[in-house]
Amino acid sequence: MNGTRKALFFDIDGTLLSEVTHTVPESAKLALKKAREKGHLVFINSGRTYCLIGPIKDLVEADGYCCGCGTRVIAEDEVIFSATIDHQTGLKIKKDIVTYNLDGVLEGTESCYFQKEHSRIPRMEQLRASVTAGGNASPYTWDEDCYDFDKFCVLADEESDITGFSRALGLGFDIINRGGGFYECVPAGYSKATAIDIVLKHYGIPLENAYVFGDSTNDLSMFEYAKNCVLMGHHDVELEPYATFFTKNVEEDGIEYAMKKLGLID
Question: Cα(16)–Cα(214) distance, rounded to whole angstroms?
Answer without folding.
Answer: 9
